[in-house]
Specification:
The chain has 145 residues and is an alpha+beta fold. The chain is built from six helices and six strands.
Length: 145
Amino acid sequence: MNTLEYAKRYIAVGVNVLPIQPAGSKAPAEEFGTWGHLQNRMMTIDEVPQWFGNGNGVAAIGGAISGHLVDFDFDDALIFERWKELIVELLGQDFWDRLLIVRTPRPGFTVINPLPFWCWALTEVGDGKESEIRRTRRAGIHHAR
């Protein structure tokens, strides 16, 4: 599957996308410019061929625009394994099995998933101070090749 097909699939499931430079860069494609507007507006399926049929990489944009998509990056496999043990212990193997886990080139892992409603809703009733979860909800990008 090429990046054009990946971008279409992301959009089909409600994940906004950003064209990134080829060859492993996380930066937006030079001809695309800034990407802040995509935190508030979904790229349309009609726009996809213009940006992804030319060798650009595809990045998933996190945050509210993509159903509160978050990603957790682990550059250390040992820390990832410890985190996995904790998640399985607290939330169960079934929960773990539903996570999208991508091996990254560092080597490491990225876990990509929508933040469950109960997690982000909890931040709305706190004492008004910004929490780790609230910071996680802010738009960010996850790249794929």
